[in-house]
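Example 3.
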Amino acid sequence: MSFAGELLFTLSAVVAIAFAVGTIMAKKPLRAALCLLAHIIALVGVFLSLQAHMLAAIQLLVYAGAVVVLFVFVIMLIGPDAETSGSEKGKATRGIAAALMGAITLAITFVVLDHNPPMGLVRGCEPGTDCASFGSVEALGKTIYIGGMVPFELVSITLLVAIIGALAMARGRTPAEAQAALGNTASTEADAAPAAGE
Amino acid sequence: MDIGLGEYIALATVLFGIGALGFLTRRNLLIQLMSIELMLNAVNVALVAFNRWQPGSFDNLNHTGQTFAFFVIAVAAAEAAVGLAIVISLFRLKRSVETDQANQLKH
Amino acid sequence: MFEFIESCLLWIVLLPLAGAAINGLLGRDAERPLVHGVAIGSVAGSFILAVLCFIEIFVARGAGVENPTITYDVYEWFNLSVGPFRGSEITVPLSLTFTMDSLSAVMTLVVTGIGLLIHIYSTGYMDTEKSFARFFCYLNLFMASMLILVLGSSLPVMFVGWEGVGLCSYLLIGFWYENPSYAAAGKKAFIANRVGDFGVLIGMFLLLLITHSLEFSEINAIAAEGLSGFRSFDGQFVYLFGAELEISSVVTMACLFLFLGCCGKSAQIPLYVWLPDAMAGPTPVSALIHAATMVTAGVYLCCRLSNLFVLSPTAMSVIAVIGTLTALLAATIAVVQNEMKKILAYSTVSQLGFMFAAVGVGAFAAGFFHVFTHAFFKACLFLGAGAVMHAVGAHGDADIRKLGGLKKLLPKTHWTFLISCLAIAGFPLTSGFFSKDEILLGATSVAYGDGAFLEPWVGQFVFVGLFLAATMTAFYMFRLYFLTFTGEYRSAGGDDHGHDDHGDDSHGYAAHPHANGANITVPLAVLAVGALLVGFLGLPHLVPFVGAHLPNWWSGWMHASMAHPVPHDNMTAVNVAALGGIAAMAIGIGVAYLKYNNQSEDTFTTKIPAPIHSFLFDKWRVDEFYGMVILGPIRWLSEFSARFDAIVVDGGLTKVTPFVVRSFGWIISRMQTGVVYAYGTMMCAGLALGVWWFLYPHPSFQAEVNGASATLTADVGFGYEYRWDFDHESDPEFDTDWSSRPSVEHRFETSQFVAFGVNAQLNDGAFDTHRVDDDNFTVPDDYLPPGWSGEGELSGTPPVFMVGAGGELMLRPNGARSIAIRGQAPVVGDEVVVLPGQVVQIRGEENGVELTRDLTISAYVYATLAVRNAFGNQAKTCEEIEVIPAAAGAQAMVLGRTQR
């Protein structure tokens, strides 16, 4: 890999890790969302170093442009209650889980780094040759729309279903429905319904 | 130093671990959803890295890994939407986004 | 010569059986006369056929045939295989065969004749009984079983009848089963009989060991030759449960066990307790079963196998003593009883004691003669008692204190009863007189030393005991007679209840007893005539005090079918016996006459001191004793088992299992906390496990040994690569390369051996291996054959394997008599080198037979497997394998290993 690519990768990797840590450790969810945004942008750099140009663009558009925005919207809707205070319950279990996960991560990381497959299989790419279009829009587009046409259509249906599901769940109930169904929590529902909106 | 497949996979592993840690440790549902996004991104990194180092991918323009990552992004977006709808519902029910509050299935 | 007649034997048995089937299945709704007709008709048919067969045998005897026998083979039943003992095994065929010889001819006539009379009597006696069909069915079934018993030609066939009569006895005693005490009496009879049946079975098995046959004819033929005639598997001795027994001991044991069966069936000590309770059944039942036929089956068995019994003086003495004691015991109890049937029941037990005493002193014919005469007069007595009870309306039993003066009211019954009482007391010229005289003569003959194989004291004991018993017999029988028939009718003041349903003692019987019908009095008359006359069939050989000889038809008739071990020629013995009999009768009848004639109450026996009286009245408290000693512990055990089952077994299953399941459930349900992080933690744990499994390889392998080479197969894993090493201790370099093939085959060389093994087959058949390494291995006793040790100063010291300085395996023979490497000459001298693959043979000797024990020498090797997975992580494992090379060459091989 060229020196530029390596530099790009190293910087992006460090930034990505840093902001990932920031995401999970942030006290306020809005801060966490912004760390996530920065992390995603760092990953764009990683993708570029892998010559996955189209994917980097899509990552930016979809993740940074839609998903994070969605997060921010919801945080805004929920308001100040989005923050949670520290609770002492279950610290031991969480500690165990953290320890296990950390151990797994470290084990795999070290094993993978130890047994790096030989580099001889891969070569760089000269500009102007055919392989320059590796990871380009046309190449990836061809693969998706010719090889993966059916999954593509299915994914669009998945998105449709997700929209409908999200709508159904987040719609809430009209005051009439709430009173009919729950009775005792009618007042809470009645308050929440106009606040959450349609 | 030579950056190879191992470094990329190591990065993916670390990011995945961080995401998993965040999911398991935090109580805030929104942060947990963000951790899930981190994990999905880590998987994407691994997929694209394998695709780049697969023998013959340059010559044959084999983009299987990147296609897979593309679909992962699409599905992650859908999942984020539904997950946030669940957050809204939970908030409506319990007036809080703490996952500890969603314990009706407790024995 | 008897072809036509032979099939009659089968019909004699089948007719009552058919009658039972018809009455049992169809009789419930049939008319009374029809049922009576079927029942009486079947027995009458049997009787006629029995008479025909008897005539055939009679004619044949007249024609000079020695021991005429009619045999009819019905079918082959099954084959019994006995053994193997000492390697040999025999097959004894058992077939269902009926035979009739002179002994069983008479018995059959008695059974069918008296049975016929009692069937006729029952039609009158049971005229108000509503389950009459069931009664006649059981009665016919009893007849069929008794005939199978009598006509059976082998012990198993007889045993079928034996059990059958036991069953019918139970059914008939408990005929009125709604009354729980009657049902209990039935059970008691059956259980006591069952104990006896156990004795018969054991006796049969023992006989089978020494006679290899269960046919009566064969057993008697073998026994007639004396003790030398018996066949055993082992020559002179019989080996039973590890004990070495002489043939005479086995004969004695067999006789004693068979006698135990007779005690059960014929009510001797200790199994007589059922007979008095059996009076709960209807009176015809008591007459038929418990007087004339079933209870004499025991005597019949002893007479059948008389040749066998005379071979064992011990058994004969035991039989004589127990018979006498039973006679005495029952007589003492009968003296104080107050109910008619109870007195008659104890009298039956006592008379059976007489019969067995006769058998015991070798007078088989006399004993059986008493069976014959006793059948007549005892049946007549029972039927007479039944007639009395039927007339006065007593239900169950009649208390003689409430009777009296019946000789005017029931004249025919009175005369027959009197005749029978005279017979049982032994009044001169009645049948009982002759038969009792014969028995006493048998006893005195032995007492005077004529019984060559029996001690005189046996005869003396029997004579004295029977004399006392006979006196008491005469006394209580005439007490019964006088109190019942003479004087005034003591229940005349009561109401005319007729047939009273609750016959308790509080009120008397019917004021005006009615006379009985012909179907009751005719059988009584017939039996009474028999009781008077049949005695003349057995006139004594020698007339006492005169010495004249009289013809004795009976002993002539029985001569061929029974043994006659004791001659009855001694005049002194004859005189003493006759005097004793007459004296007993005179004293007994005299005392009874003085005390009871025309008396209205019993003033004599009530003068017996109260403790003795109540002891005798309570039947010597034997039932209570049994209850305490036998029934009590059994009942305790039953209750204990029931409680154990309910608490431990049921509780264990119904409480422990749910408890375990529930506690597991409780533990696991703790995991459902409802919070996500807990579930996430569990998922993490599972993930960690999976990561560990796939990240690091797990090596293991199996080895298949074939001689000196082994096929090693490693367990496969995802992306594994394998390499092997066979000498890892000495050379860490792996022998093979990395390959993805999991199995490899390798032939181990001697340089790769790390230790030696000694394999042997132990004395009990299991295989054992010992690893010989640095230390010496002394061959343990299990590995050595018996008799391995030779003589000399080292005898007793077992051989030793050791590893020499150069690493080779050496064997030092020490005290072994003969030790060699297979294919080579025996080892002499101090030590020899043994190579893996060779077989060391140690020779021993037992009972003159030479035994060899093989010790196979094997070698141990190490096999090492290293595994690498796709991540590049490696692991290795090492196992020790035992190989047995083919016998190596002459050159000594050395262990290829480093010092440890």
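Residues 148-193 of chain A form one domain. The longest helix of chain A spans residues 53-78.
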